[in-house]
Amino acid sequence: MLLIVGGGIAAYKALELARLLRKAGVAVRPILTAAGAQFVTPLSLGAICEDKVYSDLFSLTDEAEMGHIELSRSADLVVVAPATADLMAKAANGLANDLASTTLLATDKRVLMAPAMNVRMWQHPATVRNFEQLKADGVHFVGPDEGAMACGEFGPGRMAEPSAIFDAVMALLEGAARPLAGKHVVVTAGPTAEPLDPVRLITNRSSGKQGYAIASALASLGAKVTLVSGPTALQTPAGVTRVDVETALQMLEATQAALPADALIAVAAVADWRPDEAFGVKLKKGKDGPPAIRLVENPDILATFAHEGPNRPKLVVGFAAETNDVEEHARAKLARKGCDWIVANDVTEPGVMGGAENSVLIISRAGTERWKRMPKEAVAGRLANKIAEALA
Questions:
Q1: pLDDT tens by residue, 81-108
Q2: Which of 1, 158, 240, 362 has a CA 20 to 30 Å removed from the CA of 345?
């Protein structure tokens, strides 16, 4: 578990929380903010956690030993205690100007916050907005409690007691928030590449980032995830079994081999056509001009597995990358393919195709959900939770 200790008088409770967790056999790696170090010392926190205390985003030594990206993903759970108004605001708005906020922005793991602040700060409209945004982003909360505060005021804002935070942590780690435990989900991701000759191929601009993020989010909710991936340069997400393929025919075969499954999430941008002949030698320029290339249709992977049959997953989700009339085309695809949902997006938006952000429509027979533009990891987290609800 990664423990981020924010700057507030309640920071002393983080020491007791760490002691309870270590006693229960949970490994605790601490991050101490500069403000948090005004209340507890790195020496005491490190001694209780029995691990190195991290605090400096720009430490050459720390970055060499464990970069902040690896640090953000090295644990099963990230806990912020105390979660100050400042830390909540940074996390809710994607700010990253120190190690703690950068870690929260870079992590692909579940986050639990234990808020602690003055009652007026807790009730301020800005904090209320940030709290609601963080909940919508999938952040878990414990507390705050109501009671007397160090400033002399009384009301909600006290950090939950270490024992309550401990119970929340153990519930998350032991599976109460892993609703996909015991479920098998197959995810297809990335482009396919259809060879023309040993050098050239037909492919598309898909990076695979959205599919990989979804596979990671599903695994974090406890699912057994098989990721059937076209050619990408991405690293395999933790806890995910990856099967590499190149062509649409290979993706069809690998997906079939991965079944049965509880859900199929077909994110991959599969080529609709392939050359009818892959030449064994490199085609050369000639005086007769370029060769004529005849294309043949690839199998429809989504429709193949969405049709009713003994191996049809309970939930089949397709993706639609569109350039115009997004909702209209996506609804037609939903009817044509026979899947349960279509996740549609407009790939003409800057930074979507191959980029780090996405804005999507979730289309089903029950209606349409419109999600605002957000990082692909956030899209993946929300979609994974929706999948978990559907499979419950």
A1: 999 999 999 999 999 888 999 989 988 8
A2: 240
